[in-house]
Write a structure and sequence with these properties.
The chain is 32% helix and 0% strand. By secondary structure, the protein is mainly alpha-helical.
Length: 81
């Protein structure tokens, strides 16, 4: 497993179908999580929901930078829609 760069791309690109704290539902793909701050850091990282904690980072998904990660995660979201 790849160590998280904490870039926030997964908090934007991916849909979340489970409840996120502070909301009645999850979030659609392409929408920033309400807990993502201006520096793309998770404001509830230590208490984030299981779906976020269980996300497996890989070199193939995360690439070399935020732009790679966002592009790859959008492609994953489309492929699994």
């Amino acid at each position: 497993m790849l160590e998280c760069r904490m870039c926030g791309a997964c908090c934007i690109a991916l849909s979340i179908s489970t409840t996120i704290p502070g909301t009645d539902s999850g979030k659609p793909a392409g929408v920033r999580c309400i807990h993502l701050d201006n520096d793309n850091r998770c404001g509830i990282y230590e208490s984030r929901p299981p779906v976020c904690r269980e996300f497996t980072r890989t070199v193939d998904l995360c690439g070399n930078n935020f732009e790679d990660t966002l592009k790859n995660l959008y492609a994953l979201e489309l492929a699994t829609k």
